[in-house]
Amino acid sequence: MDELCDFLRSRNVSEETIQHLEKDKIDSSVILLMTDEQLKEYLPSYGDRLAVLGFCRQKGNNSVSRKSKLFERLRAKISRNRSDGHEHQSEQEPPRNAQKNVRKVEIGWMHFREGKFLQVRTKKGGGTRKISISKNCKKSELIEKAVDLFFPGQKNAEGSITDFVVDVTDFQEHSLDEQITVGQLYEQTKLPLLRFYLTTKKKDISIDTQPVNSSGTAAQDFENMEQTSSSTHHNPSTTLVEAEVPNTVDVIYVESSNALLDISSNDVSLLYPNADMNDLSSVQEFEGAVSVDVLEDSGTVTFSTGHVSVMDSVSLDDTLPLSLPSYGSVHSLSHLDMLQEPIAQRQRTKKIVVLHRGQILKELISHFCDENVMLEDISIQVVLPDGRLEKAVDAGGVLRDVLSEFWQDFYEQCTLGNDFKVPYLRHDFGQQQWESIGRIIAFGWQKEKYLPIKIAPVILEQAALGCIKSSLVDSFLRFVTESDRMVFETCRSDFEGVDQEELLEVMDLYSCRRVPTGDNFKQLLEELAHQKLIQEPAFVIEQWSNVLAALRSELEGITAAYENLQPTLRKVMRSVIYPSTMNDQQKQTGKYLSSYLRESDTQHLSLFLRFCTGSDLFLGKSITVSFTQMQGLQRRPVAHTCGCYLELPINYDNYPDFRHEMNKVLESSVWIMDIV
Length: 676
What we know:
Mean pLDDT: 75
Strand content: 5-15%
Structural class: alpha+beta
Largest sheet: 5 strands, mixed
Helix content: 40-55%
């Protein structure tokens, strides 16, 4: 009451009013229970009434009061629980859900695309549905109910249910046992609500059954194959994908294409040896320069040529059909003569490897984990970030561009160092991954004479030759930062002239355990170089040597190869070839290009080479220049990396305009191969 009176006095309320409140014993708790009309008898001013109510509420909500109220509620709740505890079920009594014969479950829909099963969203007819089913319901009944949900009338936007191979998986995406019931699953998992997925994958359909060779028709060939395939047995070690198809004979015939893969004039056929390939039923007949637009998913497409015997009894001359099992059972061509022949006698397998822009590092390493990849004739197809295929045929340019992107990503994500890089040990890269990178080094060298010249040469020498031929210290000085290099160079020439405090700081950065002096500095530098360039990446060098040792004779002169691959103005200028006859405008544009190259640093020379040839290194390719009449918004340089052609518009008013436009193109890093 005293606090309330003091508060009223602070608001200049009359003493008569305060005495009136004291006389009637009106304190804070009473005021909170009064109506506005009742309080108006004591405090005529509306502002005073609001202020007093706020003061009283604040006093009632202090921390002590709140805590006491909370404790009171807690005590009341505990007492209630104790009093009616005898009404609860005993521990041995099963919960009510366990006594029900019907349980609720969730069912979703996953469709096979992009090399894996992806959940279909609600707006596309999928989503998650809740239904009540019997606890005795098994897999077959779940499939029926799921099909009714997602394929009303046996059809939806994806097609008829008869076009798909269907299955039901649990919440871990494992196929359900045919005999297990929903009730048993609830008992095993102890989950409050089970979720199942209807999985669908399109069946392979017949593409073409035309004659493929002069010795007979396709139907005759496959009649023989069908007879022999009935005696085949499943072999899980086969390298061919097992596909479920209807009980009809299907085959994909592909005409040869010099433009795509330089295959012989005989027909070839497609194999799909990677389970990553998605929904092969979308593949249509390929003619001439095989339509790459149908390859929407990552994986590999394999072309095989030459004589192949199927089960040692069927000869298909120059064609190899897709494995054709009967519906409902699985067969494989595991006993192909090609797989039984020695490696040296086998025909080289032609593969199209589909990669995604921005994922080249991860996907190429994954593909080259297979040690037999070096026996394959590989071509590259690249998918853009928006899911469209680049309209480019790999006649060398696409491969060079992929190698350039791979090694740029590798330098950034897997190495340390300045001018020269050293592989960095990552916990997610083991023996398999580093061996795969070694195969990529060998593959790039064998195909295009491409080497990752930012890797310290002593590392490749140790891996390929088993010894170091170039200067270890020189490589180390290009590995360290520019400021550290200046300190080391000063110490080599004038040890007394270097700042000793700065020298000790730098030596400590490289874990030096001895005090440098003028007498021991040279030895310390060699020891630090050996530690950073040989000892620390020793595991990587060991894995690379398993692959590169076979190329010892070819990589004998790694230092010379590094020198030849390094882009220089002299090399690039000599590689540019102009038309034999040019008019004045063409000559002027040619001068603009020469001026631009002379002004370019090493980085821009590398960008120019990659734009024109696909490779950021100088591979000895000649760049043929031609001229176009493009004007306005269409005016831009255009390059053809496979043939190393550069098309330049001639409608430039001055050199700064040419330089600005060329820099914009080279520095954009958004180059799309859209010319076949």
